[in-house]
TrEMBL record:
Record carries keyword Signal: yes
Family affiliation: Belongs to the FKBP-type PPIase family.
Protein name: Peptidyl-prolyl cis-trans isomerase
Pfam assignment, any one: FKBP_C
Length: 110
């Protein structure tokens, strides 16, 4: 487990094949599975069967930081503190001040 200066923690589940990392302005394609600390699933592209593409500057800070450590083909588990997620307000099914856990597979950098 690696802990960054911001408090983000991540664990490499499967090493990737590339050597290029996305930047803060990259567009990426990922598969992900998001849960609360108690295991409750709140969002999953895996369950929908459809990966998602987005600009890295359009997502929560925990993803902005965490995905920049990845290379294509890599799978990681991100432990996102609420300060890098949805903070004190929460959103939808995510309660305020929640730690979020994401399993993320980086499929492509565009």
């Amino acid at each position: 487990m690696i802990t960054t200066e911001s408090g983000l923690q991540y664990l490499v589940l499967e090493k990737g094949t590339g050597d290029v990392h996305p930047t803060a302005t990259s567009k990426v394609k990922v598969h992900y599975h998001g849960t609360l600390i108690d295991g409750t699933v709140f969002d999953s592209s895996v369950e929908r069967g459809e990966p998602i593409t987005f600009g890295l500057n359009q997502v929560i800070k925990g993803w902005q930081e965490g995905l920049q450590y990845m290379v294509v083909g890599e799978k990681i588990r991100l432990f996102v503190p609420s300060t890098l997620g949805y903070g004190k307000s929460g959103t939808g099914p995510i309660p305020p001040a929640s730690v979020l856990i994401f399993d993320v597979e980086l499929l492509d950098i565009q």
